[in-house]
Design brief:
Blueprint lengths: L7 H11 L4 E4 L6 H4 L3 H6 L13 E4 L3 H14 L8 E4 L5 H10 L3 E4 L1 H10 L10 E4 L2 H6 L3 H20 L28 E6 L2 E6 L5 H9 L26 H14 L6 E6 L3 H19 L9 E5 L5 H13 L2 E6 L12 E6 L9
Parallel strand pairs: 1-6, 2-4, 2-5, 3-4, 8-10, 8-11, 9-10
Antiparallel strand pairs: 6-7
């Protein structure tokens, strides 16, 4: 994975997670949060009795988008290479449900999922075993709630609790096995409902480790994450340079084309990519056609060099197309990705040097 030493956020959050504490982790993009998510389960297996595939899923990671789920799954699979008895799996919308069901029947120790497809399997796949679940991770938790998944998350946690209780009732003694750690009775989704947990927050001055316990858990969380304007606490990575252009509406398209062409002419050795965010799926399709096939047909020459491929990504595409785009843009040395906010959070594309917000964001937080 390219790590020789843990990042600052990893040094702070991993001891908390390995100690069995609940944690809320907030840090800048690129700080190494994602690799912290699937690390505790295999690490715990080095000290605890091995689990078997027949015991089902004992670590569950939820992500808001299919692309982020794919990325987290790749990280989990890399971390589990040394633990051959721990099988990782992925269930997301758009994939073959029967194939997913067959994998769940055999047993998946660490499962990465999108909320909708996971809820579907919890409701309809009887062979999906979760009574031994010990880890529940919400990656990009705020994004999960922004996209309207709160109701599904509550359904998921209720079903997990029901399955845990049913598993305990089905044991010979009427109690869960000694190594069994049932999921919590409630799930943290908003400040009023918070259970005791530890907040690990990265700020401009460094890391803050805010321990909370007992009845103070909700109060501490509200002080950190609520009440004040979240934008006033937001700090940008030091290596990020921001600029803006004031362009008349009728010249926006030409300005974008000129910017992409100029950037392609000055691309660096080793690869250089650009991501262009727009407001809608239709706009992605329009710009992809206009800057690609239509431009070449009208001008007699391509807008970008042949070595710089033009990609598109949005929520209305078939899953096979989305997966192909995600893999292609990740692996290519040069490229331009036209996308909606489906790619706005958590995705790690190598060699991205330029990000363009083509349309005005709909909210200050964006």
């Amino acid at each position: 994975l390219g790590f020789t030493t843990p990042t600052a956020i990893q040094k702070s959050v991993l001891p908390v997670l390995l100690a069995g504490r609940d944690a809320l982790v907030r840090a800048q993009t690129g700080s190494g949060k994602t690799i912290s998510l699937p690390y505790p389960p295999p690490s715990a297996q080095a000290q605890q009795p091995r689990i078997s595939r027949g015991e089902g899923t004992f670590a569950l990671i939820l992500a808001p988008t299919r692309e982020l789920s794919l990325q987290v799954f790749d990280v989990a699979a890399a971390l589990l290479k040394r633990y051959h008895w721990l099988v990782s799996g992925l269930v997301i919308g758009g994939e073959n449900r029967q194939h997913e069901k067959a994998r769940l029947r055999k047993g998946v120790a660490v499962l990465v999922a999108s909320p909708g497809r996971l809820l579907d399997h919890l409701e309809k796949t009887a062979s999906f075993r979760t009574s031994e679940l010990r880890w529940l991770v919400l990656d990009e938790a705020d994004r999960l709630l922004d996209l309207g998944f709160e109701a599904k998350l509550r359904q998921i946690t209720e079903l997990l609790n029901q399955r845990s209780a049913a598993g305990a009732a089905g044991s010979p003694t009427g109690r869960p096995p000694a190594h069994h750690t049932p999921p919590p009775k409630h799930t943290t989704l908003s400040p009023p409902d918070l259970l005791p947990y530890t907040t690990v927050q990265q700020t401009g001055a460094g890391l803050q480790l805010l321990a909370s316990g007992g009845s103070g858990g909700a109060a501490t969380a509200a002080a950190v994450g609520g009440g004040d304007d979240p934008l006033s606490h937001y700090s940008l990575p030091a290596s990020l340079r921001q600029c803006w252009m004031e362009v008349p509406a009728k010249e926006r398209l030409m300005a974008l084309a000129a910017l992409l062409r100029n950037r392609a002419a000055r691309r660096r050795v080793g690869g250089s990519k650009a991501v262009v965010f727009v407001a809608s799926c239709d706009e992605v399709e329009f710009l992809h056609y206009l800057l690609g096939d239509m431009w070449e047909a009208a001008a007699g020459a391509a807008l970008l060099p042949r070595s710089v491929r033009l990609f598109k990504l949005h929520g209305d595409m078939q899953q096979a197309q989305r997966t192909e785009t995600f893999a292609g843009f990740s692996q290519d040395g040069d490229g331009v990705l036209l996308c909606t906010d489906v790619a706005a959070r958590g995705l790690d594309f190598p060699n991205v040097t330029t990000i363009i917000q083509y349309d005005v964001p709909g909210a200050p937080a964006e």
